[in-house]
């Protein structure tokens, strides 16, 4: 009887201290992270077909193809495990590699516009549409991940659940940040002093 009362008291104290909330939110973060990874992988899987299609265009800029191939290699070199979200440095490297990939894809699509015979092909059009869909899914998945991590981090930093976090080793998790935050925070300079052409 005494053991039952101790177990009941322990269960009540754990539920009141946020322990169960940590379990729920930790699983939510893992699920959201898996969705992010799946969508990034979907995008990476499109790249070999995109490169093969673009290579068919006469004199397509080789530097652009090399850049996208190197970006894909950088992304593939990072082991995107569930533990990555608990390591801010590894998470930053992952985010940097994905940003490099996004930039390389943007440049490839921009350069492709200089090749009307390429952009007119059915294969390129389908790949561009699939890529746009993949980018949209990545944006949605990242949004869900950001929201879930925010909830988890608030729980880990708020009193009294921060005490539970300390006792059980729940640390805040890494989150996506805006690329080049300082440049975005700087207001654009507008100069109205120059006369306009008539």
What does this structure look like?
With 198 residues, the chain is mainly α. It has a single domain, classed as de novo design (two linked rop proteins) (Up-down Bundle), CATH 1.20.1440. It is 74% helix and 0% strand. The protein is built from eight helices and no strands. The chain starts with a helix and ends in a 13-residue tail after the last helix.
> Looking at this structure, what is the CATH superfamily?
LemA-like domain
Which fold name corresponds to the CATH topology? de novo design (two linked rop proteins)
The CATH C-level name is: Mainly Alpha
- Strand content is under 5%
Distance between the termini: 94 Å
Which CATH architecture would you pick?
A: Up-down Bundle
**What is the count of distinct domains?**
1
What structural category arises from helix and sheet content? mainly alpha
Low-pLDDT parts are 4-9, 180-188, 190-198
Helix share bin: over 70%
> What is the overall shape?
elongated
Short summary of the structure?
Helix content is 74%, strand content 0%.
Descriptive terms for the model:
single chain, 198 residues, mainly alpha, de novo design (two linked rop proteins), 74% helix
Protein topology:
Elements: H1 2-16, H2 19-55, H3 62-77, H4 88-112, H5 116-119, H6 122-157, H7 161-168, H8 181-185
Helix pairs in contact: 2-3, 2-6, 3-4
